[in-house]
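Team,

Forwarding the record for the chain on the shared tracking sheet. I've put the sequence and predicted structure together so nobody has to dig through attachments.
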Amino acid sequence: MKVVLLSCCLISIILITGCEEFKKETRDIVNFFSKTSKSTTVNGTVLKYSATDTLKVSFSMGEFSLNEPNADIILSGGDTNEAYLVVFYSEYKPGDATVQISSSSLTIQTKSGKPALITKIEGTLPKGINLDLLSTSGDIRISNFSPPAKIIIESTSGDIAITNCNTGNTNATTVSGDIQSTGLKVTDAITFNTTSGNVKLHGCEAQQLSADTVSGDIVVKESAINDMQGSSVSGDINMISSKVQKRKFSTTSGEVLER
């Protein structure tokens, strides 16, 4: 009888309160016990609980910046004046972390003072904004951004993919990851740099292209470039069905191939 009464009281509390924080904590507990994520340790603190937050804010500025060392970032441009993001993160206990979005960045804070870790960010932004994205170990994928957008992307060990973007300038840098672009049209310059990864462009257009890698290959397919500079130490430079008006290629132990 006591168990029945206790259960009824608990159900009543849930129905009466209906507060967002209670819902969030309940969702976090469900995520934990259903083992949807593995625990992560940050600065000696074990983050056992996984959570997601959906954020939306009106966008009044022309730039959006993210510096998330461990997060995969997947962003798409759209015909909207709002930023709409789904943020995946790990936290110390249910309801501890709060994610906030401003017109230019994303932040996460905790009630306990313990760390929290953003693991993935996915969503839609106004297509004409400038992007400045940084991740250390995460992959970065963007698509469908258009003028006057300017794109700067940096990663250490993650891959970078840029699809169907029409921009003024695009700059992507990674150390051990690949850089790949499809349908990228740039009115000014494309600059791609990687150390041990490959650089691949397919169906791209630009006034200038600078592509550099140390141990990877450079592949430019079905693209139109006015002025291209490409260099690789131990990799090949492959030009496939592409039109390049002016070129300067260099490789030490690789080959320059055109077909």
